[in-house]
Amino acid sequence: MARRPLMAGNWKMHNDHLEAIQLVQQLVYHLDAEDYERTEIVVVPPFTALRSIQTLIDADRLDIGLGAQNCSYEDAGAYTGEVSPVMLAKLAVSYVLCGHSERRQIFCEDDATVNRKVRAVLAHGMRPILCVGETDEQREAGDAERVVGEQLRAGLDGVDAARATEVVVAYEPVWAIGTGKTATPSDANTMCGFVRGQLAERFGDETAQQLRVQYGGSVKPGNVAELMRQSDIDGALVGGASLHADDFAAICRFHRL
Ligand code: PEP
Fold first, then answer.
1. For 201-254, what is each residue's pLDDT tens digit?
2. How remote is the CA of residue 150 from the centroid of ligand 1, in Å?
3. Could you say which of 3, 76, 113, 163 is the most buried, measured as most Cβ atoms within 10 Å of its Cβ?
4. Shortest-distance Cα residue to atom 8 of ligand 1
5. Mean pLDDT of the chain
6. Are 36 and 57 in contact (CB under 8 A)?
7. 147 with 98: CB under 8 angstroms?
8. What pLDDT, on the 0 to 100 scale, is given for residue 47?
9. Strands (E), the chain
10. CA–CA distance from 93 to each of 33, 84, 130, 190 (Å)?
């Protein structure tokens, strides 16, 4: 089953709205119709740049999707500092990161919170990118599959099988994020294959074959082609390299490398 690759650039807390516009303009300068056709390309800027980029995408009819880095699991109310999924959907956001390891580690998001976010995102017609991955210590202890399996089980609790194909899972070993250390293509593929196996147990084989599983962790132009040659890797969640238009464009054009 051919799954269309998804390349998503997670800008984290970088770029004000003016810098964000510039980065998208530089990015599309490097891309052509074949790239868009082969690969779904999404930028995930900070909240403050979403409206500006949405306007740019609309005005220039860009074939770029818009993602958000986080959202509330509540629709509205007295939740100071939170951003509602209703507001994101109104901005034509199509993907929302749920449970990125920085949210889990720095902002203490647990699996139950991540699960509420996944369900809220789906309820508002957007697609969650559920991030899972083990730490260095957990890998060393031989615990990687148990940890990732549990994050998946809890993160997808209550998700209806009929909506499951809208979910994207990003396997991101924590030790590879922002460190310059990448999992070997074969190790990354083994874990993405494990994720797909878990999804098959949960939603059935046919659905699991349609679901996209990304790899994330220090993906760069120099390692993306080999990662993308693996059978169970359907794209990448890219942090650092997505802040440079030429690098992220090269990643999106992996089929030419
Ligand atoms: C990420 O933020 O999800 C990520 C994978 O970052 P980096 O590419 O910088 O490792």
1. 999 999 999 999 999 999 999 999 999 999 999 999 999 999 999 999 999 999
2. 22
3. 113
4. 239
5. 97
6. no
7. no
8. 98
9. 6-10, 40-44, 65-68, 95-98, 127-132, 168-171, 212-216, 235-238
10. 22, 12, 16, 31
Gap between the Cα atoms of 30 and 151, Å rounded: 36
Cα gap 73→200, rounded to integer Å: 26
pLDDT confidence band for 1 (50 / 70 / 90): low
Tell me whether residue 172 is one of the annotated catalytic residues. yes
Check whether 158 has a pLDDT greater than 80: yes
Residue 205: count other Cβ atoms within 10 Å of its Cβ.
Answer: 12
70 alpha-carbon distance from chain centroid: 11
| Cα atoms in the Cβ-side hemisphere of radius 13 Å centred on 157 | 13
Which helix (H) or strand (E) covers residue 33, if one does? helix 33-38
Alpha helix ranges (H) inside 60-204: 85-90, 101-106, 111-123, 136-140, 144-155, 185-203
pTM score, whole prediction:
0.97
- Point out the catalytic residue in the list 40, 134, 172, 255: 172
* Catalytic hit among 19, 82, 100, 244: 100
In the annotation, is 34 catalytic? no
